[in-house]
Write a structure and sequence with these properties.
Helix content is about 45%, strand content about 15%. The protein is α/β, with parallel strands linked by helices. The chain folds into two domains: about 5-175 and about 360-375, Glycogen Phosphorylase B (Rossmann fold, 3-Layer(aba) Sandwich), CATH 3.40.50; about 185-355, Glycogen Phosphorylase B (Rossmann fold). It has a seven-stranded parallel sheet with strand order 3-2-1-4-5-6-7, with helices on both faces. α8 (about 185-195) crosses α11, α9 (about 215-225) packs parallel to α10 (about 245-255) and α12 (about 290-300) crosses α15. The longest helix has 17 residues, at about 125-140.
């Protein structure tokens, strides 16, 4: 029987982003496959509560008690710490997080979520950009198969890194089933009170970094405030990199009492926040997939996103699309979302239907079948 090792480090250590992707995908794999031997490799500490709970008996956790950062430095320096040394022999090694270790035997697959470090280098952390610029080409060359988050990312891999088209398949993400409109008034009131949401609001979500285009979102919001809209702009997400100008822009616009940064918010609170928001805005300059808009759609929140990269693939006709650098268009779209009740009703109905067309179970089946084909 084929043996599969999955690098589960991101799932055990990162709350959002690739951590959530890894957890959702591997947990769906556990629901699907109770016979194939899987080893979940975690380098360093397990920091996300519940991230390794509930797997069937054919899933085995292997922890390497050395910090993940240390291993990445060694791999970057070319030290041949082979994946087999870390996790034991395997027929297939799968990394859901951009990179692959040196491998002496077996076959390998990797997920590349985006090439933002090449498409929008000015918006990337310089150290991360330098690392990914070296590690990602090496990983896709070493891999026997590459998964891309979207058709757009697949095309970027072909255009920017010269990856053979038949080596890449699109593995789509999905919103977790708990993302749905919250109908419990008491639960909504509790979340509203706990986060101090005492006014109607527009919601944004994502790590605070230049690629999320938050300065232009604030500019559009300032125009709504000048027109007399009573809303606040609520931004959810941890601090990232090159984010000081974001806070400075709030001060420059005089919006300190109207723009609030909630920081990282537990997943359990997010459906209520999406439900409470009058609109959700995601004008990102580039996304490999864009999970927050899909979560907003699942909760029936009227949504506007950028018309770039993978985002049109994700939202279809269930959200408004605007050029991310056009502040006038973004402000106009937000006005429509707040004022046009017929549009709001259409999007509230279209969003959950669109989100339901994506499935972690389907993604896990595709992953399982692909990995086992590699092992033959």
């Amino acid at each position: 029987m084929s043996r599969v090792t999955i690098d589960y480090t991101a799932g055990a250590q990162q709350g959002a982003g690739i951590g959530r992707y890894t957890r959702e995908l591997v947990q769906a794999l556990g629901r699907l496959d109770t016979t194939t031997p899987y080893t979940l490799l975690v380098r360093g500490d397990i920091r996300v509560a519940g991230s390794v709970d509930g797997f069937p008996a054919n899933f085995h956790l292997r922890r390497i008690p050395i910090a993940n950062r240390t291993f990445l430095r060694l791999w970057r320096a070319g030290v041949p710490l082979a994946g087999e040394w870390l996790a034991g022999a395997a027929d297939v090694y799968y990394s859901p997080d951009f990179t692959l270790p040196p491998l002496r035997g077996g076959r390998a697959a990797v997920t590349i979520h985006d090439l933002s470090f090449l498409r929008t280098p000015e918006a990337a952390d310089p150290r991360l950009r330098a690392y990914l610029s070296a590690a990602v080409p090496r990983a896709v060359a070493r891999a026997d198969h590459v998964f891309a988050d979207s058709a757009h990312t697949r095309q970027d891999l072909i255009d920017l890194l010269g990856v053979a088209p038949d080596k890449i398949s699109v593995l789509l993400s999905a919103a977790s089933p708990h993302f749905r409109r919250v109908e419990d008034a008491a639960a909504l009131a509790e979340v509203r009170a706990r986060h101090g949401l005492d006014a109607p609001f527009i919601l944004g979500l994502g790590t605070l970094e230049p690629r999320k285009n938050l300065a232009r979102l604030m500019d559009a919001f300032a125009r709504l405030r000048a027109d007399g809209y009573p809303h606040r702009l609520i931004l959810v997400g941890g601090r990232g990199w090159l984010d000081d100008p974001i806070f400075a822009h709030v001060e420059r616009l005089g919006l300190r009492d109207r723009v609030r940064f909630l920081g990282y918010v537990p997943d359990a609170d997010l459906p209520a926040l999406y439900t409470l928001a009058d609109a959700f805005a995601f004008p990102s300059l580039y996304e490999g997939f864009g999970l927050p808009p899909l979560e907003a759609l699942a909760c029936g929140t009227p949504t506007v996103v950028a018309d770039t990269s993978s985002l049109p693939e994700v939202v279809g006709d269930a959200a408004l699309l605007v050029p991310p650098t056009d502040v006038d268009a973004l402000a106009a779209a937000l006005r429509r979302l707040l004022d046009d009740e017929a549009l709001r009703a259409r999007l509230r109905a279209a969003g959950p239907a669109r989100a339901a067309s994506f499935s972690w179970d389907r993604a896990a089946r595709q992953l399982r079948d692909s990995l086992l084909r590699l092992a033959v």
